[in-house]
Amino acid sequence: MFIEPNFGKGKKTGWIEVVCGCMFSGKTEELIRRLNRSLIAKQKVEIFKPSIDTRYHKEEVVSHNENSIRSTPVQFANDILLLAGDCDVVGIDEAQFFDHDIVDVCNKLANNGKRVIVAGLDMDFEGKPFGPMPDLLAVAEFVTKVHAICAVTGELASFSYRLSEEDSKVLLGEKHEYEARGRRSFMEGMKKRAKK
What's the pTM value of the predicted model, to 2 decimals? Predict the structure, then answer.
C-alpha cells in the first residue's frame, strides 16, 4: 500500500504520483483513496477528469466499485492549470484521454509545490502504450502499477482486452466492452482477432 511521503518542514515540495494498470485493476479506487486521505488531512484538494468520460457520472470520478468523489470535467489538459488555484493536492483521473499537454501540466503543478496524483490506463486495447501515460510514468517520482484478475484464467492481469470488434483507439466502456486478461490470454485473444 502506498504511504504518502513526508518531506519534513521547510519549503513546500511538489511531486507526481502515477497509478496505472489495466481495466478493472483498481486505479480509480486507489486515486479516490489517496484523495480522501488528503481531505482527512485537511488539505485543499482539486480533482479533474476528461469531459469525454461520462460513463458513471458527468461530474464525479466514480470507480467500478461505485465509490465516488466530486470532480471537475475539463476538455483540455491546460484547463487544469487555470482551475487548480491554491490547492495542495491535484487529482487527475483517466489521464490517457488527455492530450500530451497533460505531462507539462503535471510538471508545472508539481514544480509549484503541489502533490499531483494521476490515474490512467498504461496500455490500450492492443497492448500498446496509451497516449501520454509513458511520459507521465517517466517524470513521476512515485509509480504504482495495479493489477486485475484475468477473466479467463484467474491469474494476475495487466492487459485490457476489448470484447467488441471496434477498432477505434478510444472506446469508453466497462464489462460489456472489456475484460482484464493476463499476458497469455491476451495474446491468444489477439491472435484470434487477427484471423477474423
Answer: 0.87
- Residue 192 — very low, low, confident or very high, per pLDDT cuts 50/70/90? confident
Question: Is 172 a member of any domain?
Answer: no
Answer whether residue 10 is part of any domain: no
Grid coordinates representing 183 are 499476458
What pLDDT is attached to residue 34? 95
Which of 94, 126, 155, 177 is an active site residue? 94
Q: Which domain holds residue 19?
A: 15-147
What total number of domains does the chain contain?
Answer: 1
CATH number for 27: 3.40.50.300
Give SS3 for 180: strand
Q: What is the DSSP string of 78-110?
A: HHHHHHHTT-SEEEE--GGGS-THHHHHHHHHH
- Does residue 88 register a pLDDT over 70? yes
Q: Is 50 inside a domain boundary?
A: yes
Q: Catalytic: 4?
A: no
Please compute Rg for the chain using Cα positions: 17
- pLDDT for res 51: 85
Under 8 Å CB-to-CB from 76, ≥6 apart: which residues?
98, 99, 101
What is the pLDDT averaged over residues 66-95?
A: 89
- In-domain check, residue 189: no
